[in-house]
Amino acid sequence: MSLLSAIVFSLAAVASAGPASIRRHVSHLRSCYDFVVVGGGTSGLTVADRLTESFPKKVVLVIEYGEINPTPGVFDPPTDWITASPDQAPTWIFSSLPNSALDGKTALVLAGQTVGGSSAVNGMFFDRPSRYDFDAWSEVGGHAYAHWDWNGSVTFTAPTRAVAERCGYTWDVSAYGGTTPIYSSFGDFQWDDQPVLNGTWQDMGVRVSRECAGGDKEGICWVPTSQHPVTARRSHSGLGHYTAVKDTRPNYDLLVKHQVIRVVYPKGLKRGPPVVEIRSLADNSVFGVTVNSEVIISAGALHTPTILQRSGIGPKAFLQGAGIPVLIDAPGVGSNLHDHSGPPVQWNYTHYGDFSPVPEDMLNPSFKANATAGFDQIPATGPYTLAGGNSAIFVPLPNITANYTSITSKIRALVASNSAASYLPPGPDYASSPEMVAGYKAQLIALANLLDNPRAPSIETPWATGQIAWAFLLHPLSRGTVRLNLTDHLAQPILDYRAASNPIDIDIHLAHMRFLRRITKTDTMQQYGAYETAPGPAVSDDDEAALTEYIKKTIVLSFMHPCCTAAMMPRRKGGVVGPDLKVHGASGLRVVDMSVMPMLPSSHLSATAYAVAEKAAALIIDEWKSK
Ligand SMILES: Cc1cc2nc3c(=O)[nH]c(=O)nc-3n(C[C@H](O)[C@H](O)[C@H](O)COP(=O)(O)OP(=O)(O)OC[C@H]3O[C@@H](n4cnc5c(N)ncnc54)[C@H](O)[C@@H]3O)c2cc1C
Ligand SMILES: *[C@@H]1O[C@H](CO)[C@@H](O)[C@H](O)[C@H]1NC(C)=O
Ligand SMILES: *[C@@H]1O[C@H](CO)[C@@H](O)[C@H](O)[C@H]1NC(C)=O
Ligand SMILES: *[C@@H]1O[C@H](CO)[C@@H](O)[C@H](O)[C@H]1NC(C)=O
Ligand SMILES: *[C@@H]1O[C@H](CO)[C@@H](O)[C@H](O)[C@H]1NC(C)=O
Ligand SMILES: *[C@@H]1O[C@H](CO)[C@@H](O)[C@H](O)[C@H]1NC(C)=O
Ligand SMILES: *[C@@H]1O[C@H](CO)[C@@H](O)[C@H](O)[C@H]1NC(C)=O
Ligand SMILES: *[C@@H]1O[C@H](CO)[C@@H](O)[C@H](O)[C@H]1NC(C)=O
Predict the structure, then answer these.
(1) Of 67, 123, 382, 480, which is the most buried if we count CB atoms within 10 A?
(2) How many angstroms from the chain centroid is the CA of residue 155?
């Protein structure tokens, strides 16, 4: 087909397509697209929504591996899809390689595999990071990256006065400012003993914060839930950025049940955008989608690197070993993997208060049936509208240990002595790559500064009730990898978490644990006869070896926040994308999802995924408007 007839054909297709509809077969696609978004998840649909809105004459295709379906979230009434039919599950389920620093422990990691991606299945905890997290990104990247600052907007609907009084919520609307089609609100349910831990934190000297979404992320925080303020139903990108707009957007196509294999540059890297090669999950047939303007990869931090690696954009030695021709030697692709992790403190009471309801009530079949019925109503009511809870503490390291500089000076000494690389994965693609080492050192310095900052949190402990408290390590120093499976490049990638491979992470965990172990000693807890059950009385705070052993045994390696595997950093520091999210060295190709963060923020990731995507969309729109 000539170029002219291709253009005429695609315009005709736009004119006759009518409202966007879901496509399940490539024969229903147009002959070419202006923009193709790979992955219909949290970030991808946000970008597609903004592009189709701003450019009514440009056609956008989103290609998604999963289906459009009502998907049970992780805290929704139990269904047995994970165990019954993992192939049909609306999530990817990964088990990482054994973690050698942690006695061979493996990480269990989930990721959404459905229209809406992880936002459609997640825990709906909708918190925003600290302003200092973004400052750290530009500290690593340099001046060109400074526009990735904290500023942005989120929709928040305040609770009614009655709900606010019943549940005790506080907020400050000025922290949010703005509207997006993604809702966040406070539900009308709280476990009756939620205030017990709040009192405990205050006894421990943690300050009460009225609002933590305004860039100051510290203290005892209320955190909104990503649900509709009236229906109390989940709000996610599939609903807000596709279903809600599709009927008014004849230029918005969605192809489901297709796996993007790779991108191909038939005319060379400088003459993008690339063709997007896809595979039908129904019949395995392979097809190339032609693109006019740009390809945007938004397959999430675990899959985006697989698409780049299959395309020949990745760590050179690894690609050569895999038999993939090297298009761009980009050692950062699939490197820099990290996640939030942490061990718990657990306790029991000799005489607890007469609280009702408490989570143990869910063991009572009639209470649980009532909770499920409440969840199925519109508006939804009851325990399931609380998801995993909506309160947490965020505490800076200087408030956790007076000895915090011993940790941060150790980090700086590691950089100064040129031994940081010894904790990176060995080999030419990582520990022996000057770029990767330079980037890691820059990250360590930025992380030491964050940990010294009395306003930037080091630990998060979310809670909904009281008997267990997890110590989330917000700023891990260890780095792992995502690599293709060498026997089957289309299979799930191999995750090597390498948590605690930098032993200073254990020092930070120790400080966090010693802090959390003060819980049972507080006046609030003592009034109920609280006693620690884990680590328990046999493990003394001073017995570093025993406490370390406990941490290694009980640590949960993934709180489902894998990130940073196509980091936004300069190429000379092992970065994969630049400040405009364009892949270094490739034309017509960007990455927009949680892979682009250089380092984890002090938050759960969904609000940041939306924010990164909104900002990326604004950059892309500006660029194409001025063309
Ligand atoms: C179980 C769970 C609980 C969580 N809890 C919370 C929480 O309470 N609060 C919070 O803020 N965050 C939470 N998170 C994290 C947060 O939801 C994610 O970090 C964020 O949504 C990721 O957004 P993304 O755009 O990077 O990727 P995703 O939203 O995961 O989107 C990636 C999409 O790409 C698709 N895809 C992948 N590979 C291909 C391919 N080759 N071809 C085509 N399509 C492909 C996937 O199917 C998916 O739909 C949770 C995550 C999970 C999994
Ligand atoms: C911050 O973002 C808001 C919109 O969310 C915008 O109105 C404001 O000008 C921005 N401020 C700065 C300093 O960029
Ligand atoms: C940390 O300690 C300082 C000094 O005591 C205090 O002002 C601040 O409120 C504390 N921060 C938190 C989050 O509790
Ligand atoms: C904690 O308790 C204080 C009152 O002591 C209250 O103002 C605040 O809203 C509570 N916060 C949370 C998250 O429970
Ligand atoms: C907690 O204590 C109660 C009695 O006070 C006991 O019945 C229960 O088994 C204990 N739970 C654990 C996990 O130790
Ligand atoms: C659940 O129980 C509460 C309290 O008894 C009741 O008000 C509510 O209507 C019940 N919900 C459903 C869905 O049955
Ligand atoms: C501070 O930390 C260092 C290094 O971890 C340790 O050697 C020292 O004993 C600690 N000092 C105090 C007072 O805890
Ligand atoms: C790699 O893929 C093969 C073939 O699908 C599979 O048998 C193997 O278990 C995978 N390897 C890993 C480590 O997951």
Answers:
(1) 480
(2) 19
User: Residue 293, annotated ligand binder?
Assistant: no
Q: Cα-flanking dihedrals φ and ψ of residue 373, to 5°?
A: -60, -40
| 162: exposed, middle or buried (Cβ count in 10 Å: 0-12, 13-18, 19+) | exposed
Give 184-206 pLDDT, tens digit per residue: 999 999 999 999 999 999 999 99
Cα–Cα nearest to 565, from 299, 264, 259: 299
- The structural domain count of the chain equals 1
For 444-491, the pLDDT digits (tens) are 999 999 999 999 999 999 999 999 999 999 999 999 999 999 999 999
In a domain, 432, yes or no: no
Q: Could you count the other beta carbons within 10 Å of the beta carbon of residue 42?
A: 31
Q: What is the CATH number of the domain that holds 46?
A: 3.50.50.60
The residue ranking higher by pLDDT, 5 or 65, is 65
**pLDDT value, residue 87:** 63
User: How far apart (Å, rounded) are the C-alpha atoms in residues 557 and 576?
Assistant: 25
Does the residue 3 lie in any domain?
Answer: no
Q: Which amino acid is at 301?
A: A
Among 480, 548, 537, which residue's Cα sits nearest to residue 510?
548
How far apart are the C-alpha atoms of 171 and 189, rounded to whole Å? 17
Share of the chain above pLDDT 70, in %: 95
408 is in an annotated binding site: no
CA of 196 from ligand 3 middle (Å) equals 20
Residue identifier of the C-alpha nearest atom 14 of ligand 3: 206
Catalytic residues: 561, 604
Residue 522 inside a domain? The answer is no
Of 219, 236, 220, the C-alpha closest to 228 is 236
The parent domain of residue 53 ranges over 22-71+236-334+567-626
Q: Which two tokens stand for residue 356?
A: 């009702």
Is 409 a pocket residue for ligand 7 (Cβ < 6 Å)? Answer: no
Q: What is the mean pLDDT of the chain?
A: 93
Nearest atom within ligand 4 for CA of residue 194:
14
Looking at residue 261, the DSSP 8-state letter turns out to be E
DSSP string, 67-97: B------TTSSP--HHHH-TTT-SEEEEEPP
In a domain, 430, yes or no: no
Identify the band that residue 80 occupies on the pLDDT scale cut at 50, 70 and 90. low
